[in-house]
Write a structure and sequence with these properties.
Blueprint: H1 20-29, H2 42-45
Length: about 45
């Protein structure tokens, strides 16, 4: 991680029970382990 990189923000929207958390976890699980990832649920936002 020598050079600074711009952050990437991915927003996932949808109704209750539509799989937002599931897809967010799948994305996080498939990202390089050296990258920093934060999942912020709507409940944490409010």
């Amino acid at each position: 991680m020598g050079k600074l990189e711009k952050p990437v923000i991915i927003g996932i929207a949808g109704g209750s029970g539509s799989g937002k958390t599931t897809i967010a976890r799948e994305i996080a699980n498939n990202i390089n382990e050296h990258d920093r990832i934060m999942i912020m649920s709507q409940d944490s936002y409010y």
